[in-house]
Amino acid sequence: MIDEKRLKEIYEKINAVRYNLSEYACKDENSWRDREEKRQHLRSSFALDRDRILYSGAYRRYHGKTQVFSFSNLIDEEMTNRSLHTTYVSQISRTISKALGLNLELTEAIALGHDLGHSPFGHDGERALSKLCEAHGIGQFHHNIESLHIVDNISRKGIGLNLTFQVRDGIISHDGEVHNTILQPKTNKSQSDIDVYIQDKKNGKAAQMMPATIEGCVVRITDTIAYIGQDIEDAIRLNILKRDELPIECVQHLGNTNSKIIDNLVKSVILNSFEKPYICFDDETSHYLLRLKRFNYERIYTNENVKKANKIVNRSMQILFEKYMEDIQQNQTNSSIFKHFLSHKRVEYLEKYKDAEKVRDFIATMTDRYFNEEVKDYLLPWKF
Predict the structure, then answer these.
(1) CA 289, CA 366: separation in Å to the nearest integer?
(2) According to CATH, where is 1.10.3210.10 located in the chain?
(3) What would the pLDDT profile of 227-243 be if each residue is shown by its tens digit?
(4) Average of per-residue pLDDT across 41-59
(5) Fewest CB within 10 A of the end CB: N or C in the chain?
């Protein structure tokens, strides 16, 4: 028989330690959910969110999704995938949050969930899927919006994980592609702010949104810290880049290996954010980080060899999207979209979303390998 009274006493002692946090940290007592639940004794609300994400199907699929280099994991399994990137973001952000006296459980939950909505083949797949979504009248596809959609409306057969507002906000506000020297949380945010942001982004507006918590700011800045040097290491591994080609001024200030770059960036964040209501780099570090981002964009992300797979990804995405649309409209229940997706969803999901939105969600949940298997029957007869 579980002694609930004793558990409550232990929980109160745990809280006494847990809540010895910075004045800027988000406390568990300030968390809230759309559907309120009875608070647990041994896990905080944010720890519960973390575990719900960790045990979700979307999290398990991380390992099979591209980070940067499409198809590279098929020939080199040590290349960084989405799962590794998420782990790096989680651990680096925990290091920063611990040093700053922030809420580690909130930080970890946001970090583990921030990329759940990434489509197969990374940002190349995201752009291809976005064009198709626009063409079918459902607005642009953005992985951060889809990440929130997955935890809210797709997981658990369509009823969602019912995460706290703070974790949900951190997931959709993590946009690491935007360079910010200072990240200061917008603490008065509401669900309506998120709704407006989603609509603006789907309509193609250059919308930006700061996280509601300082922990969300940590994850957002860490997203960049985690990928900037690792992408260089992967490019070197693929012979796309040589280490001595890195900009000398960036090497002098940030280092020439992933470990040195991470170390210098993390130290800059801690030194300049300690006991502050915001998260930031010093100006010099921010300058050279931006310079390194531009270098990566020019030499890695738009590299001709890296983009060779684009034509295949674009054509494959189009073929699958149109095929699934046809399958739904013709009620082809033997199709994969029925067997592996729609048949597992509650009626609320099925009635709420358009056919194109269902196709979008199905494709977005795929791993690279599953996507490849699906296109085999449709793609092989086509010539490129």
Answers:
(1) 32
(2) 4-25+42-120+139-307
(3) 999 999 999 988 889 99
(4) 92
(5) N
